[in-house]
Amino acid sequence: MNDKDTSTLDVFGVGIGPFNLSVAALLHPLQELRQVFADSKPDFRWHDGLLFDDSTLQVSHMKDLVTLADPTSPFSFIAFLAKTKRLYRFIYADFPRASRREFNQYFRWVSESLPSIRFDTKVEAISLDGETLKIETSRGEYRTRRVVLGTGLTPFIPACAEVFLGPNVFHASNYLHMRFDPRGKRIAVIGGGQTSAEIISQLMLDADAMPHELHWISRRSNYLPLDESAFTNEFFTPAYCEHFYTLPAQERSRLLEEQYLAGNGISPALLLSLYRRMYELEFLHGRKRPCNLLPGTTLTGMERGADRESYVLTTQTMSNLHGQGLQKLEVDAVILCTGWEYSLPACLSPLASRIDRGAGMFAVRPDFSLEWDGPDHLQFYVQNAARHTHGIAEPNLSVMAWRGGKIANSIAGRTVYDIDHMSSVFDWHAHTAARIAEIEHA
Ligand SMILES: Cc1cc2nc3c(=O)[nH]c(=O)nc-3n(C[C@H](O)[C@H](O)[C@H](O)COP(=O)(O)OP(=O)(O)OC[C@H]3O[C@@H](n4cnc5c(N)ncnc54)[C@H](O)[C@@H]3O)c2cc1C
């Protein structure tokens, strides 16, 4: 598409993370649709502050941008392997899980192959302008009929740590950007999910460059595994997302809590490698307690130490493993592996009051479009912001291609991708279609 052409687009995508890249790849064959996807970054980067050499996907490489909606797409991971002449090598390397670095290469390759992609383009404001949506960006204006929001999640910083953010107190999402040298420091890693485990693993990698002290503080009662068992994996299927959608709101909240570890635990392979590394460091390198494990412990406060260089953490211990109650811990650095949360993109501010956000959450329809009080022919779609309606798979790659296919079908107004009624071992889908139709017409 020629950017000088100022006529109205059919689709404008805000953000080019994997989720909007999936939609862009699936919309690409629909050449009748005028489409642009924009991202403020200079090129494709997948959480590059955490892109370690040894990080692997937590899911099968078949859960790529397109395969689960269209196995014949030229934008699959297998197509990327073929294009880069490494198909046989990939098979014989027999990785238990593909590397996140390789998936980043793959995503980048897709982003470079699609004419609709614009990097270095920050979306500043979206407003209603007559019969169209006006998109103001750092590189000029667009008009569109539909917007797909793929702005991702924002790092969550505990309130007590906010004023101390800097070279020695930072969110894990910036880890590799900080060029942090752990040698000789007393370090606290806060959090009990996959990211904290990956950071602990990095900090124990080189026995000669270890921190002086390493404390791993987690609210959870232990360092708990991701549940990757077969029946639990069914929560990461389209059939379950659709079934989940039909449940009463209270039941959905209860299930999200109950299923938390299915999406937020630590990979069992990483847990085993950490356990082995602690063994090696203790018995083969003679390092007594290379990592001080503090499960069942919550960070509740933080202040400067007496020397003004260190930090004194206040923690609340729930279990009786280390006693109970408040404890103090003095450290030189704090790495916050405290998760990510959805926040309303600033560019939506001009329309914020017109988009339905009861209890702070979007009213999301089954096809991921949003309820709002603007004209019906102008639509917003949302990704990574529908856990409350579509379930725990929402932030995960597992349903990315399916959701991308749903959005593409909805935008096209026809079934471009035949992705409904996928088989499930459970009978969830027996009444789902009828129930969704009821909800849609209510
Ligand atoms: C370290 C890490 C590893 C993960 N690994 C896995 C995994 O192995 N398996 C799995 O299933 N899930 C994984 N996830 C979860 C999920 O798949 C990723 O978080 C994924 O990147 C989410 O994609 P997204 O497109 O929603 O957001 P993001 O990847 O965060 O992309 C959002 C993009 O929007 C852009 N943006 C935001 N606002 C604007 C604006 N106003 N204008 C222009 N651009 C804007 C940002 O620059 C960014 O590039 C992982 C998450 C993390 C943090």
UniProtKB/TrEMBL annotation:
Keyword NADP on entry: yes
Keyword Protease: no
Molecular function as annotated in GO: monooxygenase activity
Keyword annotations from UniProtKB, A to Z: FAD, Flavoprotein, Monooxygenase, NADP, Oxidoreductase
Alphabetical list of Pfam families matching this protein: Lys_Orn_oxgnase
The protein's required cofactors: FAD
Pathway: Siderophore biosynthesis
Residues making up the signal peptide according to the UniProt record: none
Record-stated family: Belongs to the lysine N(6)-hydroxylase/L-ornithine N(5)-oxygenase family.
Protein name per Swiss-Prot or TrEMBL: SidA/IucD/PvdA family monooxygenase
Organism of derivation: Lysobacter hankyongensis
